[in-house]
Amino acid sequence: MNPLLSVHNLKKIYGEGCDDCMGPSPRPGPDNLCPICGSIIACTDVTFDVYPGEVLGIVGESGSGKSTVLGCINLTTPVNGGEILYSRLQSGIRNILEVDAQTRRTLQNIHFGIVYQNPHLGLNFSISGEGNVAERMLVADSRNFAAIQEKVHNLFERVELSSARFKDYPINYSGGMQQRVQIAKALINAPSLILLDEPTGGLDVSVQAKILDLIRSISRELNVAMIMVSHDIQVIRLLCKRIIVMKHGRIIESGLTDRVIDDPQQAYTQTLVHSTIQ
Amino acid sequence: MYNFALLDENSKREIRRSVLKAIAIPGFQVPFASRELPIFYGWGTGGLQITLSLIGKDEILKVFDQGDDDSVNAVNLKRLIQLTTGVEVTSDTQSATLLQTRHRIPEQTLTSDQVLVLQVPMPEPLRKVESRETETARMHAEKDYGKMFVKLYEDVLHHGEITLSSDYPVLVFDRHLMATTPIPRWDVPKLDQAENLFLFGAGREKKIYAVPPYTDVEPLSLEDYAFRVEDFSNKQCVFCKSTESYLNEIPSPEGAGQIYACSDTDFCQKNRNQ
Amino acid sequence: MGYVGVKGGKDAILNAEELVEYYRCRKGGTPLKVSQIEDQMRLLIDKIISEGSLYSPRVSAIALKQTEGDPMEASYLVRAFRSTVPRTCFSIPVKSEEMFLIRRISSSFQNIPWGQVIGPSRDYAQRLIRFELEDETEFSVDPPKKHDESELDEPVEKVVDYLRKQGLMQNPQKDPEQKPYDITRQPITFPLDRSARLQRLTRGEDGAVLAFGYASLRGWGSVHPTIAEVRVGYLPVKILHPYWKTPVTVGKVMVTEVESICSFSKTTDPTTGEESYMFTLGYGLVFGHNERKAIAMSILDRALCAEHPTSPIEDQEFVLYHIDNMESQGFISHLKLPHYVSFQSALDRIRSIAAKRNETATDASEEKEHV
């Protein structure tokens, strides 16, 4: 099977950068700073594939670069190097870092969906929950109010948002409901890849479980690929067959989730596994 | 003391160049270095600068405000143009060659030898959904008008109807979203595939744009919530009895919505003379 | 049927103009002499020169007389007049060290080369109304001994240059190739470069510049400067001789110039790549004698250099779109124009929505009845 998305040597540096950290395989330091120029190496040498329909997990502590990788794929964070090949554009396999602005918006709006931990990043708080989801269809040139509304309502029912709340504004939603609307928004145009950036981060445990359950059933039902970023290896284990472990902007270990958790190779992964699973 | 048509010749030439660019890219707002005129910014200086730059000695000029040739703004502008050019002025829509208007398109269809100059207060149709100029410029460049359709969707969702009244946004040449100055919705269909040239001038906001003859102009709408003009069914002008013109309501002791009169005074007068 | 006006009123407009003339001279009396306005309303004239951006005290004085002393309206007249005058040539840049100073103070150092020159200033005066002015006559005026206005007529080193020599103040980033922007001849598109920003600011309305500058100082922005220098004086206006191509002085203009020392930041020298900490500069220059506007302008100049705006005062579009007297007063005033047509259109919408609501409400109640 051909990969849906192939990330090769992705690099993102915050700061001026130098020949070393801007080049391949920069010198590692004790943290995620370049030991030569002090720039932040948000991610470097990141290479992985995502296959259609699979759920890939990226785990690591905060500052490890996992959210940066998502931002780069979603084309909201400009990169300093590498390529991201995507196979579902009409024009064939393309490096999406080089597409024009219009294709970029098509990718963001139709091919990808994203769910942020912070609902303010994912939702427009000045329009209704329903309007937020409808926007994606309107941007994709749907123009029939009744047809759009029907599709949005069906999806809202699928993500179990109470019908009395469809017209409400996001500010009036609970944290769980905000995430449900974000998930509906990500799904509405039947994307081939969904990016989940700590989607259950700020929620209390019972709500968290329900949202994770929803994500899992959606991924099975719709056969949509997902990249799930979390610092919580429990969450990752629940959803993902394959896992990538990141530290200081680099991938330090990857493989099948069961293998990585049962037999972690890297000291950092061992700590991660042992500190969260007793 | 003053040059013909007030502005110095270099300024006029510069404005004409912007007009040409605007005609070449229908619906696109061309930035220009708007001058201060003896009329306040916001009182038609954009239209006036276009008129002053285009006007020649043989032009026959009509200036009207809200359809009325004798309204304050029209009178002001007309006096200034006449004072500095001495051109012939008329209220007759048919015989005018150059027409400047505030917020109306005449009821009588214009022809290919007429130019209608519209005064524009807010040239940016996206300002309703985005306050930043740098961002609206990007949205136009990428034809990214999703936010505007979301506005329509939210309207229908909360009010059961599109609430945009005047200044109804239109898509020109299937490319640029354009503000309609605020003419009423009644006048919007007159922009589509018209015989005449429309020029739009926004003095304070420093933009010029155009709809050339025979250009597609399509009001923004949803398939099942079509664009509709103002409803004057069962109403008629109190003077000329017309039922086919844009009417202004006249408050009267008999109650609201009882008495109406034509907004286009030239149209009304001709109807009465017949 | 109530009163129905058929047409607007051309006659009424003409009558209104006559009435304005009546009000302008209503008490009879001796008409003000334009020269008196020019001489004795010095600071008001300077404000109009600055906002009208035309250095003509005489035209400004006539405008002020015509508008019954409304400075906003008067500066509008001046700007409009400016639009009718062709541009025949450009002046060439002058160094402000060449200024013939009538006043020059620094708040950063007590002892500056050539000293502090207080000059004509009300800074230290008590704000008490001098009622004796009511009875002033040409005989009772006690003019002070005539001062030589140009007390310092040789170039005076600037305080900021003193800091620059020590490497403590950013050098201006000069690009000799780049011509300054001309906001009266080129369209404004954002982001605006600094020369264009300075032009928008110097033509800005006195009160608006002051209010925005004040907001930054109060914390809606981060600029809290120390004034290196306030200079008031005459700058020569020089042009290139059309034949000899050599600079010729053709006149002089009174200006107020302010250089503000603002917070320091890490800067990298573009040529050597060396890093150092340096103060940043805020610059204000306005036509005429108007110190508060020049100071506020220097704050805004610095605030608008912010690369990542965090407050409205650092936002170019927010400040520069709303600071111009012509644009703001014009658009606010246009609200007095007829809006019959667009309001009729809005009436149509609100009635239609209300009707629709009633329909749905009636349908719902009918359904209930069926049940």
H-E order of chain B: HEHEHEEEHHEEEEEEEH
CATH topology group of the largest domain in chain B: Rossmann fold
Q: Count the DSSP helices of chain A.
A: 11
CATH superfamily caption of the largest domain in chain B: Bacterial phosphonate metabolism protein PhnH
Strand residue content of chain A? 15-25%
For this structure, the quaternary state is heterotrimer
Counted beta strands of chain A: 10
Overall mean confidence score, pLDDT of chain B: 94
Q: What proportion of the residues of chain B form beta strands (DSSP E)?
A: 15-25%
Name the chain pair with the biggest interface and residue counts per chain: B-C, 76 and 57 residues
Give the helix proportion of chain B (percent range): 25-40%
Number of helical regions of chain B: 6
Strand order of the largest sheet of chain A: 6-7-8-3-9-10
Principal-axes geometry of chain A comes out as globular
Distance between the termini of chain B: 45 Å
Structure description:
With 278 residues, chain A is α/β, with parallel strands linked by helices. Chain A has helices at 19-22, 66-73, 101-111, 119-122, 129-139, 145-158, 175-187, 205-222, 233-239, 257-262, 267-276; strands at residues 5-14, 40-50, 55-59, 81-89, 92-95, 112-116, 193-197, 225-230, 242-247, 250-256. Chain A has a six-stranded mixed sheet, sandwiched between helices. In chain A, strands 2-1-4-5 form a four-stranded antiparallel sheet, covered by helices on one side. The model of chain A has no long low-confidence stretch (mean pLDDT 92). By secondary structure, chain B is an alpha/beta fold. Chain B has helices at 9-24, 45-54, 72-85, 133-141, 146-159, 265-273, and strands at residues 30-31, 60-65, 88-89, 98-102, 115-119, 170-172, 176-178, 197-202, 207-211, 217-219, 247-250, 259-262. Chain B has a seven-stranded mixed sheet with strand order 1-9-8-5-4-2-3. Chain B is globular, with a radius of gyration of 19 Å. Chain C is globular. Chain C has two domains: 3-82, no CATH class; 96-135 and 147-323, no CATH class. The two termini of chain C are 47 Å apart. Chain C is built from twelve helices and four strands, in the order H-H-H-H-H-E-H-H-H-E-E-E-H-H-H-H. Residues 1-6 of chain C have low confidence and may be disordered. Chain C is an alpha+beta fold and 371 residues long. Chain C has helices spanning 10-24, 34-40, 42-52, 57-66, 71-82, 159-165, 194-202, 206-218, 291-303, 316-321, 325-333, 340-370, and strands at 100-105, 226-240, 247-268, 275-287. Chains B and C meet through helix 1, strand 1, helix 3, helix 4 and strand 11 of B and helix 5, helix 11 and helix 12 of C.
